[in-house]
Design goal:
alpha+beta; three-stranded antiparallel β-sheet
């Protein structure tokens, strides 16, 4: 009360009741500001489950089914060595570190409905009719070359392999897609967030992507332990690291428009051009929710994606993915593939995953006293959306009608050839 009395004099407040209300308000502000104080702690893995010998076969079957990394037998071998009470402190510490590292590699469990899918995904539904043409449909890069919309040639010595410039109407189409997508997802209660593109390696690993080893998709910044983000899902998840949220706040839905960096490459003909590139723009959805909400949240993400692409008139299919396509974090994952007539192939344009508590255990994100569930989904991956749209709507005269939903953002209804030089017109004058 002495503190309250002194503050009351300084601020000229008339009653201690007013001051107490102010102090409570300030306290709440501090809680709010500190709640999102970035904090990376040691992952809290399911040790009781992983180290129970009765679960070894079940866990091993899941690892084999998912064709992922992780060795539950090695986990138990290390744990058995730790039971030796004669171990010197240095050896014990080394074994404990190794045990934790090997447990961290064990993938998430798999949804019961998905466990016996086999090698192929389940095609849940097809949307819109396959486009028909009066001419042989051209591939995206051929169309863009004719219309002077894209540059990919002779850039290796400039900014590396898989580099591209979007130009003219293709740039406008990119921005239209971003604006259309963000407007749609904001109407579903998402909060738009601008995220960093540079993240600690530990955050990326906690989200389920490896940063070490010869085969990984991550660009590392030397000599620091920082990396370029492969998707804003990682930054959005990292934002909540070390936080304890209230059940009445659930679910939290956030979204971001960001650049994504992937150190991946491919020599496959069908993946040429901008289909698989080292950097691209993506609109991502992300949710932190209670464990009882994540399955419904995955369905919501899936339905938002379907609605986005359906309104654009793309011919696409929804796939329920088999275990070996899930990656380490996902409990269940849906992919969406659009028909790309110029390439004569289905190409993935979106996916959404329920990661249950895989990421939250590694980032220490809690709802009340239990670990949260996280869900992520791609609302728009720009390069592949450009490919699908341009190849789907191409016309014999070389023009590309713009889907009705995107026209308000482009102020035109079709894309046509862009001339590098102004057209010269010859005018004949009558001789008198």
């Amino acid at each position: 009360m002495n503190i309250l009395r002194n503050l009351n004099i300084v601020r000229g407040l008339k009653t201690s009741t007013n001051l107490q209300a102010l102090a409570a308000s300030r306290c709440q502000e501090n809680v709010t500001s500190n709640r999102h104080k970035f904090l990376l702690s040691k992952p809290t893995l399911e040790e009781n489950y992983l180290l129970d010998v009765k679960n070894i076969e079940k866990i091993n079957e899941n690892i084999l089914r998912r064709k992922g990394v992780g060795d539950i037998f090695l986990v138990h071998d290390i744990n058995n060595k730790l039971q030796d009470k004669s171990l010197d402190p240095e050896t014990r510490k080394s074994l404990e570190t190794q045990l934790h590292e090997e447990m961290r590699k064990i993938p998430n469990d798999t949804h019961p409905e998905v466990r016996n899918y086999g090698e192929d995904p389940i095609a849940v539904k097809f949307y819109n009719e396959e486009p028909s043409f009066k001419h042989k449909p051209l591939e995206f890069s051929e169309i863009c070359k004719k219309l002077n919309l894209l540059r990919t040639d002779h850039l290796g010595n400039f900014s590396g392999h898989k580099t591209y410039y979007l130009m003219h109407d293709l740039v406008e189409l990119e921005q239209a897609l971003i604006r259309y997508t963000t407007k749609e997802i904001l109407s579903h209660g998402f909060k738009l967030t601008s995220v960093p593109d540079i993240l600690p390696a530990k955050v990326i690993q906690s989200c389920g992507m490896q940063t070490e080893g010869e085969r990984n998709q991550v660009y590392k910044l030397i000599p620091s332990n920082l990396c370029l983000s492969g998707t804003s899902e990682m930054a959005l998840a990292g934002y909540f690291a070390g936080t304890k949220l209230s059940r009445n706040e659930m679910p939290i839905k956030v979204a971001a428009v960001s650049r994504c960096f992937r150190a991946e490459t491919s020599g496959l003909t069908e993946e040429k051009g901008i289909y698989r590139v080292h950097q691209f723009t993506k609109v991502e959805m992300f949710s932190v929710c209670h464990s009882s909400q994540s399955e419904a949240m995955l369905d919501e993400f899936k339905n938002i994606e379907i609605n986005l692409f359906n309104k654009l008139g793309l011919h696409f299919k929804l796939l329920d993915m088999p275990p070996h396509e899930l990656g380490a974090p996902a409990y269940r994952k849906y992919d969406i593939e659009a028909w790309m007539p110029g390439r004569k192939m289905w190409g993935e344009i979106s996916s959404c995953s329920n990661c249950t508590d895989y990421q939250s255990r590694r980032l220490n994100i809690k709802v009340d006293d239990e670990f949260a569930h996280t869900v992520n989904g791609t609302a728009c991956a720009v390069p592949r959306m450009l490919i699908a749209l341009i190849e789907t709507f191409q016309k014999e005269d070389g023009t590309i009608p713009i889907p009705k939903e995107l026209r308000p953002y482009m102020k035109k209804d079709k894309i046509s050839r862009q001339k590098i030089l102004p057209e010269l017109k010859l005018i004949k004058h009558a001789i008198k």
